């Protein structure tokens, strides 16, 4: 099955990529390895040609999963992973020093059971290390034949320009959905100007726009339990706007997740959303969104639903927010 294609710099990938994080990390207990293996292979069967992982996800277990599950189909997909955010002394840590980047990459290659990663990102901007030094480590890794294209994640337009001056970036990855619009401040324009692709993670707002969140009774280990907008007293307010969005999706004949993915894809021709799911049904549903073409009227209606204070609360808790370099709106609530 062939899906529509989009460009991330010199990389040609399916217009919908698959975010692997949820198979090992972030949203309660990870599914069984056998099930996750089947989901990954089903994504490839359906035409997805980009799989996105990171050293941090599952503290390396997500990369291990891919290494065991799909490397026999290595020529069918673009493999993307990330460094800088990693396990340090048994905990989530941030280290963008060249030595740390080199160590993370070598460990990732072993876990992934490959000698080459197609797209390798700096997962976050470590403010203690000049971006030029971090980029230099990736340039050396590319010269050594360990990685191909280079990307950055959750960084501002200014930092993107600095990184791009060291070596052309293929992609910038940041959170983007109808309720998280920060890339529109400056990053999307910078990407268009510089010829950089944009990878939108959490395009359904961590399930908020996939009709999967109805209360804050999250399972143990679910990171949304620490995110203010996903917990009470703010969640009830936010679900009022979500209800309007769900009603619009039904009116248009789409699921909420499809409407959100179609909206993200419609914003710029170089955007590739990467939604993750553990469900075969939802995987097929998400991929079908690549065929949806929204009218300008529908796009504006979605923006109207989420205008003003329709969604309240910071998108991150204090520590993760401190590691975000992306621009913020003047009236944005920060942890």
TrEMBL record:
GO cellular component: cytoplasm
UniProt keyword Acyltransferase present: no
Domain of life: Bacteria
Classification via Pfam families: Aldo_ket_red
Stored InterPro entries: Aldo-Keto_reductase (IPR050791), NAD(P)_OxRdtase_dom_sf (IPR036812), NADP_OxRdtase_dom (IPR023210)
Gene Ontology molecular function terms on file: oxidoreductase activity
Residue span, NADP-dependent oxidoreductase domain: 17-305
Keywords per UniProt: Oxidoreductase
Protein name as annotated: Aldo/keto reductase
């Amino acid at each position: 099955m062939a899906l529509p294609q989009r460009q991330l710099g010199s990389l040609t990938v399916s217009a919908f990529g698959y975010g692997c994080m949820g198979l090992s990390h972030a949203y309660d207990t990870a599914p069984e390895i056998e099930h996750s293996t089947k989901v990954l292979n089903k994504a490839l069967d359906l035409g997805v040609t980009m799989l996105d992982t990171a050293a941090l996800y599952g503290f390396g277990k997500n990369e291990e999963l891919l290494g065991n599950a799909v490397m026999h189909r290595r020529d069918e997909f673009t493999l993307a992973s990330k460094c800088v955010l990693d396990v340090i002394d048994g905990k989530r840590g941030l280290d963008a020093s060249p030595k740390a980047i080199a160590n993370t990459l070598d460990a990732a290659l072993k876990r992934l059971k490959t000698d080459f990663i197609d797209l390798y990102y700096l997962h976050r901007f470590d403010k203690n290390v000049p971006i030029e030094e971090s980029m230099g480590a990736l340039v050396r890794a590319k010269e050594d034949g360990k990685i191909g294209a280079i990307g950055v994640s959750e960084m501002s337009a200014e930092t993107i320009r600095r990184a791009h001056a060291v070596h052309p970036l293929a992609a910038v990855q940041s959170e983007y959905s109808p309720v998280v619009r920060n890339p529109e401040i400056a990053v999307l324009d910078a990407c268009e100007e510089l010829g950089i692709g944009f990878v939108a993670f959490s395009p359904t707002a961590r399930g908020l726009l996939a009709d999967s969140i109805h209360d804050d009774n999250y399972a143990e280990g679910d990171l949304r339990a620490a995110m203010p907008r996903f917990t009470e007293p703010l969640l009830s307010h936010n679900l009022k706007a979500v209800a309007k969005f769900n009603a619009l999706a039904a009116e248009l004949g789409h699921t909420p997740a499809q409407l959100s993915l179609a909206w993200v894809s419609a914003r710029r021709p170089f955007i590739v959303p990467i939604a993750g799911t553990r469900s075969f049904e939802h995987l097929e549903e998400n991929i079908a969104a690549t065929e949806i073409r929204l009218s300008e009227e529908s796009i504006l209606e979605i923006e109207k639903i989420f205008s003003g204070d329709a969604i309240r609360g910071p998108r991150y808790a204090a520590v993760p927010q401190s590691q975000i370099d992306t621009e913020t709106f003047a009236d944005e609530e920060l942890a």
